[in-house]
């Protein structure tokens, strides 16, 4: 069994995930665009992994968009996306909140019919290792 550790941006919430990830989706739905402020969400999913809060469990809040299955857990201090349990015990872990490296590549892009118009052919853009001059 693999252990993964993660935290929020301000370091208040810290957690451990024990187990394996079943899938890794890049979701382009409009709900994920809104709650990430970006082109897509990058979430790991597991039916069997266990989530344990090591610190700051009381700083984690969850928002469910009324009338949908869209749900987001986040730190109430810094707003960072954090793991949460969704319907039928499905654990959803935002990939960017993990502090432990993992080697799983994304399984698929999903809800691409909602893909942002500016999120096309990004591979042709220049790349910088840091902030450009």
From TrEMBL:
One annotated GO molecular function is: metal ion binding
User: Which InterPro entries does the protein's record reference?
Assistant: CENP-V/GFA, Mss4-like_sf
Would you identify the family this protein belongs to, as annotated?
Answer: Belongs to the Gfa family.
Sorted alphabetically, the keyword list is: Lyase, Metal-binding, Zinc
Alphabetized SUPFAM superfamilies for the sequence: Mss4-like
Annotated CENP-V/GFA domain ranges read: 4-119
Q: State what protein this is by name.
A: GFA family protein
State the organism of origin.
Pseudohalioglobus lutimaris
Instruction: Report the PANTHER family cross-referenced here.
Output: CENP-V_GFA DOMAIN-CONTAINING PROTEIN-RELATED, GFA DOMAIN-CONTAINING PROTEIN
Give the domain of life: Bacteria
């Amino acid at each position: 069994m693999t252990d993964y550790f993660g935290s929020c941006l301000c370091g208040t919430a810290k957690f451990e995930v024990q187990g394996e990830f079943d899938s890794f989706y890049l979701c382009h739905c409009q709900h994920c665009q809104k709650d990430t402020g970006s082109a897509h969400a990058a979430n790991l999913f597991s039916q069997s992994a266990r989530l344990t809060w090591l610190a700051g469990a009381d700083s984690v809040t969850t928002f469910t968009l009324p009338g949908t299955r869209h749900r987001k857990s986040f730190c109430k201090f810094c707003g960072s996306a954090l793991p949460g349990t969704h319907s039928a015990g499905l654990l959803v872990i935002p990939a960017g909140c993990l502090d432990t490296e993992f080697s799983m590549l994304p399984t698929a892009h999903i809800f691409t019919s909602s893909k942002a118009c500016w999120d096309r052919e990004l591979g042709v853009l220049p790349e910088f290792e840091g902030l450009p001059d």
